[in-house]
Design brief:
single chain; 390 residues; Glycosyltransferase; globular; binds glycine; 3-stranded antiparallel beta sheet
């Protein structure tokens, strides 16, 4: 038996049948668009949100829609979803809505207080620029990248994630931060200035060295000493404990290194992405439907919540990774996850205030957003649907 065959066989044993059923993309979009029309009506009804400058729908709490201000890390996902609807349908009505909701986060281009600018600005303005070529969007992306690299420390070789909880950590970097590098790679393309690219590569390399265990699972938070560049501690904030594998963190890592390989062609990133995919797909803890529990190491499994958002991010990443690592079964694994999400994790028509997916877990240790719809699950679900077509 050759190596490739053994890997595919192992994947099929643990991850169930590789003959995943294909979903009907047109129907999936029809459902998602109808839900989003419901959500848009809910937003209109929320007059208090408008007064509080809350611009983007994030989740549901106690049955009520939660809107967030533009500086919230999730503010770019809803505009991004609207761009995906435009991409799929070419309907100018979706473009108009996408433009309207994208504008609402524009001022964050100057925000230097968070690493999340990639999520906020690339999902909104980045998709807008990709689909329209609007030069005004291009300027916003460049300014956003300039703000983001202000958080880079050359001694530690990483971009700082958070400024809060200074009693717990000094210079925290979370695995999620890999996602923000796409904005930097794009900005080097837009400007010809390689400094954005170099910072992204430095961050990816430092993270590859310090954030992963031997089995390719990742810590959530690595705290650095910026005098020496040494690691102070490896801990969690949103996972079960410091030695556990928080499901969404693994998904961010997979997506991040797949994207870094696309942007650089560096084989080390491809090896990393393959290793992470192995951890996720061969993990015996994951239920047969491929949607992970919120943390792979919660001792209360199976009586704990799932994280549909981790599954959606993973599916989207696997469609891309399949292009670079042929014969590993990644496309079939992605099809299977997407099929599960589509069949068993979508809201019933009109339910959940118009969010598309249910059963995501935001921050379990804080008992916040447990088993609820969340905008980033919807965003990566739509991206995965689009990628599944190619
Ligand atoms: N980036 C924060 C989260 O994944 O919850």
């Amino acid at each position: 038996m050759n190596k490739k065959w053994i890997a595919t066989f192992a994947l099929s044993l643990v991850f169930g049948s590789l003959n995943a059923q294909k979903i009907n993309i047109a129907q999936a979009f029809k459902h998602a668009e109808a839900q989003t029309r419901v959500l848009l009506t809910e937003i209109q009804k929320d007059t208090l949100a408008a007064k509080k400058n809350q611009v983007s729908p994030r989740t549901i709490e106690h049955g009520k829609l939660v809107m967030v201000v533009s500086r919230d890390w999730t503010s770019g996902f809803f505009p991004g979803e609207l761009w995906f609807f435009y991409q799929y349908s070419k309907d100018p009505k979706w473009m108009e809505l996408a433009r309207t909701y994208t504008e609402k986060v524009r001022k964050e281009q100057f925000n230097t207080g968070t690493h999340d600018l990639g999520f906020m600005m690339y999902c909104s303005f980045g998709n807008g620029y990709r689909l329209t070529g609007d030069t005004a969007y291009r300027s916003v992306l460049i300014q956003s990248a300039k703000s983001l690299i202000k958080r880079f420390n050359p001694v530690a070789g990483v971009i700082k994630s958070w400024d809060h909880n200074t009693d717990k950590w000094k210079y925290p970097v979370i695995i999620d931060n890999m996602m923000n590098l796409e904005l930097l790679f794009e900005t080097t393309r837009l400007t010809g200035d390689s400094s954005f690219y170099k910072i992204a590569v430095r961050h990816a390399n430092t993270t590859m060295k310090n954030h992963f265990r031997r089995d390719y699972s990742s810590w959530h938070v690595v705290d650095y000493d910026t005098e020496t560049g040494n690691v102070r501690q490896k801990v969690t904030a949103q996972g079960y404990n410091d030695t556990s594998a928080w499901a969404r963190g693994q998904a961010w890592a997979l997506y991040g290194y797949t994207m870094c390989y696309r942007e650089t062609g560096d084989k080390a990133y491809l090896k990393q992405a393959n290793g992470i995919a192995g951890f996720i797909l061969k993990n015996p803890v994951t239920p047969k439907d491929g949607i992970p529990y919120w943390d792979y190491n919660d001792p209360k499994i199976p009586n704990v919540s799932r994280d549909a958002s981790a599954a959606a991010i993973t599916a989207s990443a696997l469609y891309e990774l399949d292009k670079y690592s042929k014969g590993q079964g990644y496309r079939k694994a992605a099809d299977k996850i997407l099929f599960s999400l589509n069949q068993n994790y979508t809201s019933k028509p009109g339910d959940n205030r118009g969010f598309i997916l249910e059963h995501s877990t935001g921050h379990r240790p804080a008992n916040s957003e447990v088993d609820v719809p969340i905008n980033y699950a919807d965003y990566y679900y739509l991206e995965a649907l689009l990628r599944s077509e190619k």
